[in-house]
């Protein structure tokens, strides 16, 4: 069952409405000038904090670990479709709820320091209530977190642009966080490029109803569950990467379809 969405979204409206909004936009330019200054200031503060954090942690040695959670798990064919339950394959509100249901925090894990060192992993901050374990974030879950936030903010910004007089609850990260997310996703794609060749069927229809080779997401999900950074003793939310989910104790599911059954996608 799809849970009730906790965010507000709006549809990207048709060209006629967009054209009307373009004509009216100058009236609201001054309205956003103050907001722009605030966002710029927030970005500077955020970037300064990130620079300080990087400098503070720069003593930690780099990592050349070859450890892989998926290991030799085989790839299998999954048929790709242009539309899905996460794009235009259903009601817009239900699509938003599916995106909101994804728990990117599932990828926050706690690993024994000695074991991690033996695998060649970089040192990590200790679990707040257990200094024998370090806190790690599985790469792809970090990208999912970024993707969720970018998508949510995209819909909210469109609504503000088209209906600037509307009042609604909205929350945004500092601009520097979005810059980090764009950079992180870019580097992840370049580091692990998908080289599957999709046939061009027509303009804006690439790869529809064609197969791609996929790894078994369930292996990743179950490993993360078994090594979860769930910390019931962290009553003060001291874990620095709790990502708005106190204690990271949400259960064994990340609510991401594993892809074997194509109707789930």
From TrEMBL:
<dbReference type="GO" id="GO:0043386">
    <property type="term" value="P:mycotoxin biosynthetic process"/>
</dbReference>
<feature type="transmembrane region" description="Helical">
    <location>
        <begin position="35"/>
        <end position="56"/>
    </location>
</feature>
<keyword id="KW-0812">Transmembrane</keyword>
<comment type="similarity">
    <text>Belongs to the ustYa family.</text>
</comment>
<protein>
    <submittedName>
        <fullName>Uncharacterized protein</fullName>
    </submittedName>
</protein>
<keyword id="KW-0472">Membrane</keyword>
<dbReference type="Pfam" id="PF11807">
    <property type="entry name" value="UstYa"/>
</dbReference>
<dbReference type="InterPro" id="IPR021765">
    <property type="entry name" value="UstYa-like"/>
</dbReference>
<keyword id="KW-1133">Transmembrane helix</keyword>
């Amino acid at each position: 069952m799809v849970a009730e969405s906790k965010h507000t979204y709006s549809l990207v409206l048709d060209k006629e409405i967009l054209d009307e909004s373009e004509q009216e936009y100058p009236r609201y330019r001054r309205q956003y000038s103050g907001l722009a200054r605030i966002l710029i200031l927030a970005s500077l503060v955020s970037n300064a904090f990130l620079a300080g954090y990087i400098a503070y942690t720069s003593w930690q040695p780099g990592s050349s670990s070859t450890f892989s959670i998926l290991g030799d798990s085989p790839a299998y064919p999954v048929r790709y479709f242009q539309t899905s339950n996460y794009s235009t394959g259903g009601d817009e509100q239900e699509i938003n709820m599916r995106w909101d249901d994804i728990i990117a925090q599932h990828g926050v894990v706690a690993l024994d320091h000695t074991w991690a060192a033996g695998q060649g992993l970089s040192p990590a901050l200790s679990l707040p209530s257990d200094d024998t374990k370090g806190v790690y974030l599985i790469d792809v879950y970090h990208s999912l977190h970024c993707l969720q936030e970018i998508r949510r903010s995209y819909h909210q910004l469109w609504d503000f642009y088209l209906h600037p007089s509307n009042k609604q609850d909205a929350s945004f990260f500092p601009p520097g966080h979005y810059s980090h997310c764009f950079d992180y996703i870019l580097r992840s794609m370049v580091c692990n490029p998908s080289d599957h060749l999709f046939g061009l069927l027509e303009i804006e229809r690439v790869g529809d109803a064609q197969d791609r080779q996929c790894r078994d997401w369930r292996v990743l999900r179950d490993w993360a569950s078994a090594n979860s950074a769930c910390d019931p003793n962290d009553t003060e939310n001291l874990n620095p990467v709790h990502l708005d989910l106190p204690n990271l104790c949400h259960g064994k599911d990340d609510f991401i379809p594993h892809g074997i059954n194509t109707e789930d996608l």
